[in-house]
Amino acid sequence: MAFFLETLFGGLMTGMLYSLVALGFVLIFKASGVFNFAQGAMVLIAALSMARFSEWIPQWLGIESLILANVLAFIISGIFMWLIAVAIERWVLRYLVNQEGTTLLMATIGISYFLDGMGQIIFGSSVYSIDVGMPKDPVFILESVFEGGVLISLEDLTAAAVSALLVAVLAVFFQYTSVGRALRAVADDHQAAQSIGIPLNRIWVVVWTVAGIVALVAGIIWGSKFGVQFTLSTAALRALPVVILGGLTSVPGAIVGGLIIGVGEKLSEVYVGPFVGGGIEIWFAYVLALVFLLFRPQGLFGEKIIDRV
């Protein structure tokens, strides 16, 4: 039972990381109706900026405090992601208002390759580390219940807590603020939103900035665990099944979908993998996503679209 709980907890923590990346997809889609293929590149460049600025700031300012250096690096990285959002809106999105979804999708693919190249030019292409003081040592819990206790990672637990807090803030933002309601209006109909005075350009800057901050948090967590390297941009591919499972328009769906896939991957690899030769963790999420596409394409929390003719 203890081993099962360890596997379950590990899957939940991995699922929260998937959910963070998936949130970026959901945020952009809710505001523009386009699937943002550049989200993985945004996670990468956000993590690169955090890693490099936390390294450069102590050298530039002579700061010895790790906490202060990380806070300043986070603020500068957040401003950097805002500048990227402004540039994307000004030089790409404003020229593609009311265009077909395929056109916007191709634009995000182009943005993805551009961000990858810009990241190498500005920050370099080596492997970098991020140290934000997250606890690395695992601990044993429930020792009075199970012999030897249950081993969990404090780093994963901290990352899950940060992710949960971020999700709660975003849910409140979308449901109970005027900006959040404007974002949903823009997603439903660009022209109708503009006709009632909603500034489309500002809304897109806001949502891409929020998605950039989410990417920054995800990049910090991934970089703290595994290091920052250019394969990090493929993290978006791991989040695609999460988006399909939870629904493209649902913030809670991204979280629930991530948890289901994270737990499913771990449990299937441990308990089913030995009977089929292993490797289930690699393809489990995509097979599950395929099943949902066949029987419930809108996902668990997505809105079912009914066309009347």
UniProtKB/TrEMBL annotation:
GO molecular function, one term: transmembrane transporter activity
Subcellular location: Cell membrane
Keyword vocabulary terms for this entry: Amino-acid transport, Cell membrane, Membrane, Transmembrane, Transmembrane helix, Transport
Topology of the protein relative to the lipid bilayer: Multi-pass membrane protein
Name of this protein: Branched-chain amino acid ABC transporter permease
Membrane spanning stretches: 12-29, 34-54, 66-92, 104-130, 150-174, 203-222, 242-263, 275-295
Main location: membrane
PANTHER family hit by this protein: ABC TRANSPORTER PERMEASE PROTEIN, BRANCHED-CHAIN AMINO ACID TRANSPORT SYSTEM PERMEASE PROTEIN LIVH
CDD domains the UniProt entry points to: TM_PBP1_LivH_like (cd06582)
